[in-house]
């Protein structure tokens, strides 16, 4: 047996993923039916807000929540998030999680009922600028 740091080929990676899938099927895990969901807020034809993420079994990964700077602090982010959460509940999704960082972003999620599931302290080079995982049961 040898070990190396060569890059794996796309074909080799696909074989590994197929094996992961076969293990899940053997264990009785149903297909994930991963699907991207998104909402866009527009004003005068310009995108001023965006929320997006992926369904995965009973969970939703909130990958993006963005509001243009001039629209921040006016409730647009909350409205986008509530719209997404309502759609997820209607679909039977039970939980949502996301990652955020910075000084003000964590307060946004905490005010909306999200709780911390992990903190990577000083993840970035700025002291106190953590990488934080949040979750919420829908």
Task: Describe the overall structure.
The protein has 138 residues and is α+β, with helices and mostly antiparallel strands. 29% of the residues lie in helices and 36% in strands. The protein is built from three helices and six strands, in the order αβββαβαββ.
How large a portion of the residues is in β-strands, by DSSP E? 35-45%
In terms of quaternary structure, what is this?
single chain
- Helix share of residues? 25-40%
**Low-confidence blocks of residues:** none
- Quote the average pLDDT: 94
For the biggest β-sheet, the strand order reads 1-2-3-4-6-5
Whole-Å distance between the termini? 48 Å
Number of E-type strands: 6
Instruction: Please summarize the sheet with the most strands.
Output: 6 strands, mixed
Radius of gyration: 19 Å
Strand and helix layout:
Elements (H helix, E strand, L loop, with lengths): L9 H17 L8 E9 L2 E11 L2 E9 L8 H16 L3 E7 L3 H7 L3 E6 L10 E7 L1
Parallel strand pairs: 3-4
Antiparallel strand pairs: 1-2, 2-3, 4-6, 5-6
